[in-house]
Batch of 4 targets.
Target 1
Amino acid sequence: MLVAVSGGPDSMCLLHALSRCREEFDIALRVAHLHHHMRDQADKDAAMVEEFAGSLGIPTTVGHADVLELSRELAIGVEEAGREARYRFFRKLQETTGARWIALGHNQNDQAETVLMRLFRGSGVRGLAGIPPVNVDIVRPLIDVPREWIEEYCRENGIPTMTDSYNLDLKYTRNLLRYKTLPELAADYNPSIVETLASVAASLRIDAEYMDATARDAFDKYTCRHGRITVVRRSGLKTVNTAIALRVVDLAWREVWSGDGNLGLAHATDIIEGTQAAISLPGRVTAVQGGDFIVFYPEAPGPFERILNVPGETEVPELGITILTEVLDPQDVGPLGSGGKSKCANSAFGLEREDVAYLHYNVRGSVACPKDAASSGTHSGYSSDKTQEEPLSVRTRRPGDRFAPLGMGGCEQKLQDFFIQQRVPKLYRDFVPIVAAGDKIAWVGGFRLDERFKVTKSSQKVLRIEVRRSLRCSRNCVTI
């Protein structure tokens, strides 16, 4: 278990308490301390933490981060940048050490402050549920313990602590709540305001967990994923309560973005009501209305080109796919190889998709491609004695792309025109994998092979290419 220790009373108390029960629960501890490089005192804080952990027989890893630079880089506040830096450090150390858990020192006062902050920002039930005691692999053993109890524990046990001067600066929202707003609320309205807010969070968390579980079930039932695109069935949303529908839309957005943040009630409501044909969402995600479907897709990937492993697997995260290649003998391929056709499968958007293709592969270990590309509207048949060797790569479409679709006698066509003829939605075209040999398209992945790369009777080897997409079919509409 990694124990995040800043040197303040909360984390030092947590470390000491965990050290006392590590044998009882059979846990190995390691301290994770991040040096933020924001205060002159920071070096002494790191030394204090390391020395105290050493006195308990616990090893320490000290990380380093330039929080001010990270704040400028991400265009976020210093508080948020500090949090981002810490979690990056914790995750990297967890991966290195193989630790199962990350323990944080949040307490009851932190919980109350978080609830108020989110209330002021207009959060819903999920936000007002506050900080969860357990969130996957992150645990907060002190979340129900008041700060004054923690400070008393440190005094009674002679635990050294430090005070971060940034925690006293009232220009930061949390500090303003801690030293001004909450004390005023306690004096004027409720002396037990901290306990009350923490209790409200616990109650709302029970409600949120139930609604989230119900929404997850509806999400699995009425949505599907196709590469990096998520599709929601509108008619399915109409069968569930609005609170659940809003959560389904939020889950769809999060699946596409895979980031941190909040979609917001206004965006989610606009999507459900279908007031706009296309809505720009946080995280550079777009939601498009189309018949019974709501399609969520990310910003188009930038230009890239990746050499394919032949034979082997090639991950293409930009498109949410994996490309598998295998070199075969023609007799092992059967009629598919001789015809140069591909296996078809239904896809999202009502398109027929060809997820497997077979290409001519010469004995020297490359695909076959004519030396001279056919000009537009001319015939260019395959010729085994006029080939050049090119490594296969995968990329996205480029301006001016042309290829000779299989079945058109070698006549070239603009890729743009091909997409229009096949009724490929505009939003989907930037996520179609283009398999190329040099500057020539060999296969428009999932749609059509180039005539010049088809398997012929003279093919001594056949290259099988398969596109495996990050698919998640809905339980009751597997072909959408």
Note: The chain is about 35% helix and 20% strand.
Target 2
Amino acid sequence: MSGSSSLHHANYWWYTARAHLLHTVFEPYLRPGAGVLDVGSADGPSVAWLPQRVAVDIDMRGLRSGGVCASAEQLPFPDATFDVATAFDVVEHCRNEGLALAELRRVVKPGGVVLLSVPAYQWLWSGFDVRAGHHRRYTRRRLRKAAAAAGLREERSTYAFTATLPFFLLSRLLTKLRKASGQVVQPLPGPVERLLLALADLDRRLLQRWNLPAGSSVFYAARR
């Protein structure tokens, strides 16, 4: 079991950038004192901005600060327990996406919020996805359809990592040309990381006001 790359590369630029992007898009859905369930807590570097939360992960190594070891497809909580449920880069790991989304809906209270992020575009599929244990990548339309089928009502959906999309395209192309299985993350030179962080910060500022039309991730907020 390789587990989440964040277990080994917590300071990688993508986790830093994603934390800022997730915070920008989803913070408006968090009210003071809300009960939060965070599914997939192995990606802790990206969710430090969340308030005190109940952490769930299928990999015990992602629960070093405490939490519950369980699958997103079988959450061990009663119906309508939480005000908010988050699953950031989780649903693509679930063989049964409908069951995972239905479970997230089930454990939030009526009117509660489910916050999601998933990787975008099946045509970006590569050895990175295989090694990470993905079953699929998404378009915004596909995620909307799956969430609606689970009984969720959309509040916001947008692409993210828009300005860095050319970098993802190039890295996937090089991986395929080299016929490499790919690593989930690879260290980058400092100037490259700083450039990518600056581009991601451009996304962050745009996302404060608008949804973005393309990107390597999809962010989605919905209510039960």
Note: The chain is about 30% helix and 20% strand.
Target 3
Amino acid sequence: MTIRKEIVDELLKDYKKPEDLIGDKGILKELQKELMERILEAEMTNHLGYEKYNPKGKNSGNSRNGKGKKSIKGDFGEMDIEVPRDRNSDFDPQLIQKRQRRFTGFDEKIIAMYSRGLSTRDIQAILNDLYGVDVSPDLISIVTEEIIQEVTDWQNRALDPIYPIVYFDAIIVKIRDEGHIKNKAVYLALAVNMEGHKELLGMWIETTEGAKFWLKIITELNNRGIKDILIACVDGLKGFIEAINSVYPNTEVQLSIIHMIRNSLKYVSYKDRKKVAADLKCIYQSTTAEKAKAELDKLSKTWDDKYPLISRSWKNNWEGVIPFFAYPDYIRKAIYTTNAIESLNMSLRKVLKTKGSFPNDDAALKLMYLAIRNASKKWTMPIRNWGLALNQFAIAFPERIHASSFTQKN
């Protein structure tokens, strides 16, 4: 709507300096207060069915009963407003509801800052600097605690019946437990769905990463609707393959190439890292398993004298590596280039590094969920060349990829 010029002139007639407009007692704040109180009065009129002082209200069974003061927080800072009351006490204003102490959108600002790893003290300081609002640690805790129910609903949502690729991994965080700070594993299951989009299926916390707990997770995913996984990418944890195949016997289990590379390079000095990485690339980018084995032998001859653990690691895990080479080209590219669990872990570590430790499991889940929610906003496009990869999946797994697989879950 357009505000008439004479109204603006009237508002600005005593204007002398910026504080008169945007200060704590400036025109904008006073105007906002007046508008809110006018809207509340209009809501009361609608509730009662008659205007203030209208004789129609006599013996109507309800009437105005003065006003109550309420202090609310928002982008405008902290503001005291007057809220009309009725004698029957059944007036329920919509603009600022009963027991509401923060204006719409204010909680979202707290959650947005919290999700980026800011401490309670930092959030307090920023809100005070930007809006002149003093927020207690208890208020921040109350606002962010509401996320736990959202996490629970998300963790129990129904899943698609089939996923072409699922990555299983864990990230270690420090959490206080029974009075001591312990390293706990947060298990992650990141999928690529039939549309080629990344989707985090869930996250779980346990003291240590183990195949027994992975079995519990995989069983839960099955109970939530997943009936088939074409390819599962895992790290080298003992018993992991057996855990997956006990629930999904037809799933091809591929040892994570990213994990193999990362584990290999941790043995290498900085000056040799580029050369070793280039030799490793010759292995995992080979066209066949035979060519890859020849490249591994070549790497062994080149580096065993200096770094014997690299070739030994690849040879010991070779059975988990070679399924990769049996897949068609675009499936291989999808498996490797969409190893997005690494970029997800990077997003999580960026937030987690601001926290020394968490007071409990819920605090860790809350922050990681919010960080993942932020990261997933960028997951709007399917992975590169997904259409070609999906056609290759249909050729490689014709009995398992069919028209019903493309049905979206509600």
Note: Residues 63 and 286 are 83 Å apart (CA to CA).
Target 4
Amino acid sequence: MGSLAFTLDLIATFAFAVVGARIAINRNMDYAGIILIALVASLTGGTLRNIFLGIAPSWLNKYQYFLAVIVAVFFAIAAPTRKPIGALILSIDTFGLAVAVVSGTQFAIEKDAPLYSAALLGITTAVAGGLLRDVLCQVEPILLHRETIGTSSALGALTYIALEALSVSNSISAVISGAVVIAVRALSIRLDLHLPRAK
């Protein structure tokens, strides 16, 4: 894994672990449950991405992922708020979503995946952990009904592969694509925008 993709992966791992731990705390889980949900929320997406690419999950030989999760759990426990999900936690989750989309898409491209596959793997990296987290915490999955998490991830991944096709540098592509994810999700939350629903 390239240094940029690895760094982005660690940032996303920390962000998703914080949110997972906070949700577990709000569900009155014990410390073992909090750590488990933090691990699931932060590592599932990247694990699935690597499995689909036919390579071992990154955390099998890089202990830094577990350090990121442990630090995130301490951060979540020490956070003063006991509200369901405060503005700070929501901001961390949005930032983690953007970073995961970029790292997942970039990593897939580095492994010579076709661009359409790279986009799908970028989306998977971003949303799979949160989906399983919500299922285990017995809350309605956010991905399936609000905040356009899937839409913002898809637009970010498509932006990245479009810039890749135009031979834009990785760092610039990462910044622009991440900004797209953050902007779309932030606007959807602020303006209460949703995809159309079946009648």
Note: The helical segments are 3-26, 31-53, 64-78, 87-110, 115-136, 149-165, 170-190.
